[in-house]
Amino acid sequence: MEKFSGLISSECSVHARFLLCSAFAPLCSEQVSGSVSACRALCDTVSEDCKDQLKLLPATVALDCGAFPLRAVRRLCMRPPNASELEPEPQPPPRWPFRDPELREHGCPPAHAMSPTGECWPACGQHARYTQPAKRTAEVWMNTLAWLSLLSTSFALLTFCAEPARYRYPERPMVWMAACHAVVATAYVIRSWLGAKAVSCAGGALAVDGLASPACVAFFSLTYYFTLAADAWFANACVAWYLTAASEWSTEALERAAAYLHAAAWGWAGAWTAAALALRRVAADELTGTCGVARAAAGALVGVPRGALLLAAVALAAGACPGIVRVRRALDSRGARRVGRLAVRAAAGGALYLLLAAAATVAKLLEARIAESQSEVPPLGALEAGPAEGSGGAWGGLPVCLGLACGVAAGAWAWSRKSGAVWRAALCPPRKAPCCAPPLLRPHHPYYKRPLHVSRV
C-alpha cells in the first residue's frame, strides 16, 4: 500500500482506498470459496479518474484491472458501500473479440460458420486459421507419405504371402503391424480421392463434434484403431523377442500363445477407440482436412495409450539384449553370424519405428498444448491481413506425416536380398526340364544312347 500512498493522498477518486484495500486484503469468508475483491468496473473508474497520478508511479508498479473479477460473467465481487444502486451494469464482453461491423448475421466472424453445437468454427472451404499454401503443402506431404506407406506395407504383406514359412514367430508380429498400417494408409488414400470436405465437414462448418458426421467417424475409427493396434503389435514383437531370447521359448511355443497376443493387441486398440467415441472426443482439423482426437483430449487418448506401449516395448527390447548375446555365445560361428544379422536387422527396424512413433506422439501433444495456449480466433485486426499462421501451424500436419512415416518403417523389415530372391523366383521362374526321364536318359543329353530294349520294370 505504501507504493500507492501518493494515489490515496491525492484524493483523485473516492473509491481508490476501497479498491486498493480489496486488492491487498480481500474479503474472506467460510461461506465463500476463495477471496472476493472489488469489481473490474470500479477499477476502470479509478484508473480513469487517477490516470495522471498513475503515470507518476514507479515503472515496477502497475494497476492491472484485468485481474479483477467481472460481474457480467457472474463472478462474485464487491462494490463500495457509497456506490449508487442505480449504477448501470457493465455490458458483457462479446463472444468474439471483433468489432461489430465485422460480425455476420449469425454472430460469427468472417470465414467462420455456426456449427450444430451453436459455436463458431471455421467454415468449410474457407481459410480461417491457415492459408491456402499451407493447406496445399500439408495435402502434398500427406498424400505422398500415404502412398509410400501403402506401397511399403503392401510389399511386405505380399512377400509374406509368397513365403509364409519365412516369417514365423518371433517375426510374425511385424506382419500384423504392416497390415494395420496398410489399413491406415488406405484410409488416407481414400480421403485424398473423396476430398477434405467429404471427411471433415458437418454441414457448413468443420465437424466440431465428429460424431455428427458419419464419414468423420469412419475415418477416425479406422486410423485411430489401427494405429493403436500397430503399436500394440510392435510391443508384441518385443514380447516375442524377449520370450525367445531371455526365456528360450521356441517358435512352436510362441505360436501356441499367439491367441493371447491377438487378444491383447486388438482388445487394447478397441477399448481406447470405444472410449474416445463414448466421450465424443473426435474433431476435425482444418489444415489436414481429417478427423482425429480432439486437442483437449490428446494427452489422455494419444499420450497415454501410445506412450505406455512404446515404453513397454523399450523395456522388453532392453531385456532381450542379454539373452541374444547369450544365444550367440552358445552357437558356432556360422549360427552366431546368422543370429547376429537377424538381431541387427530387427533392432534397426524396431529403432526406426520407435523413433517415428515417439516423434508422432510428442508432436501431437505439443500441437495440442500450443493450440490451448493460443486463442481460438485470431486477434483483433488480424483479419485484415488474412489468416494467421502461428507456431501451431508448424505443428499442424507434423503428427499426421510422422504417423504415415511409421507405415513406411513398418514394411521396412521386408526390404532385404532374400525378399528380392523370393520375388525373382515368383516373377521369373526358371525353366524346368521334363520330369518323365532322368537327366542322362533325355534325348538331347551328350551322353545319351538310345537303349535297344527297355523292360517295363
Automatic annotation (TrEMBL):
GO terms for molecular function: transmembrane signaling receptor activity; Wnt-protein binding. GO terms for biological process: canonical Wnt signaling pathway; non-canonical Wnt signaling pathway. Residues 138-355 form the G-protein coupled receptors family 2 profile domain. The chain crosses the membrane at residues 140-162, 174-194, 224-245, 257-279, 307-325, 346-366, 394-415. Gene3D superfamilies: Frizzled cysteine-rich domain, Rhodopsin 7-helix transmembrane proteins. It comes from the Eukaryota. Disulfide bonds join 12-50. This is Frizzled-10. It comes from Papilio xuthus (Asian swallowtail butterfly).
